[in-house]
Specification:
The chain has a 6-stranded antiparallel sheet with strand order 1-6-2-3-4-5, sandwiched between helices. By secondary structure, it is α+β, with helices and mostly antiparallel strands. The protein is built from 11 helices and 6 strands. The protein starts with 5 loop residues before the first helix and ends with a helix. Helix 3 packs parallel to helix 8, helix 7 packs across helix 11 and helix 10 packs antiparallel against helix 11. 51% of the residues lie in helices and 12% in strands.
Length: 322
């Protein structure tokens, strides 16, 4: 029987997107190590901060097709996708009855009783449908750290009629016997080289990112109530980027004894993770106190840029050797 662990959901608390959070939670709850998925998952969040300042939105996207391609190549997981509305299903139950296994489905949080958006705002979300009874669905929600029952009529309305729902569903099929599957873990050294090349392509150390931070520090709009939650998502995205990097490198050292990651590099990763958390705390202090840009915030960002430069130089030096 498939599992759904809220402990795993909390482990990935730094994932703000419901699509990725649900996918990671469900797969890892069922015994699949997610760390190798992160080898090319690093994104330059400075570009997102720039977009946020210029357009007032957070525009990071989950590369879903890439995620499920990794799931198939690494673990033999097959994904069946479709659209519950276009395929003329009359209820979520009919979809469950067809596949006889848990699945993900998009819904409108306006109809979800426990959602902060309930009866307030139409906003798309992703839910894990874990099981059904005569009167309800068992639902897993990693974003709200919740496993609960929702009446069938209520959830059907959220999925089939809600403006925020697009009707898409995803049904993961696990291998019945993993021992018979040739687990295609790529060559670790090759994966490390690809990881280093991907990180280099993100151009984190480029001077243009210093310009973005200067604009951020000089902007009068960063404490606008509409911008505050979006910038917070940017800071969390930086935390997530470095946290995923640390998790991937830790997995590499476990998989291959020949891979030696210098403790200094891992220490700098820890400092960057906590550094962005402290930036977020300092930023929110300013928002609460309606204060101007503090010197502490500026100093913390300067410290992060110095850490990034040192870490990236060492990162390329160490991983380029593989």
């Amino acid at each position: 029987m498939s599992q759904y662990s809220l402990k795993v959901a909390r482990k990935y608390h730094f994932i703000t997107g419901c699509k990725e959070h649900q996918s990671l939670t469900y797969l890892e709850s069922n015994g699949y190590d997610m760390r190798p998925f992160f080898y090319n998952d690093f994104h330059n969040v400075y570009s997102l901060i720039d977009e946020c300042l210029r357009k007032g939105d957070f525009l990071q996207h989950f590369e879903e097709e890439d995620f499920w391609n990794k799931a198939r190549s690494l673990y033999g997981i097959r994904i069946c996708t479709g659209n519950i509305q276009e395929e003329s299903f009359n209820s979520v139950y009919e979809l469950y009855d067809k596949h006889q296994r848990p699945f993900f489905v998009s819904g409108d949080s306006f109809f979800i009783p426990y959602s902060p958006n309930y009866r307030k705002e139409s906003l798309g979300t992703r839910l894990s449908i874990l099981g059904v009874t005569e009167s309800s669905y068992t639902v897993g929600d990693s974003q709200n750290y919740l496993i609960t029952e929702i009446e069938r009529g209520i959830l059907d309305e959220a999925v089939l009629k809600g403006e925020g729902a697009n009707g898409h569903y995803w049904v993961p099929y696990f291998m019945e016997n993993m021992d018979s599957f040739d687990c295609r873990i790529p060559n670790i050294q090759e994966l490390l080289r690809t990881h280093a090349e991907h990180l280099l392509q993100q151009r984190v150390a480029d001077p243009e990112n210093d310009v973005i931070l200067d604009v951020f520090l000089q902007s009068r709009n960063i404490y606008d109530p509409q911008i505050i939650p979006k910038l917070n998502e940017c800071f969390i995205a930086w935390y997530a980027a470095w946290q995923k990097t640390k998790m991937f490198l830790g997995w590499c050292t476990e998989q291959c004894p020949d891979v030696i990651i210098e403790p200094k590099l891992m220490e700098r990763l820890d400092k960057l993770i906590t550094g962005w958390q402290r930036v977020q705390i300092e930023y929110n202090k300013g928002a609460q106190q309606h204060a101007g840009h503090s010197e502490k915030l500026k100093d913390k960002l300067l410290n992060i840029r110095q850490l990034e430069a040192a870490l990236l130089a060492e990162h390329y030096s160490v991983l380029g050797g593989y």
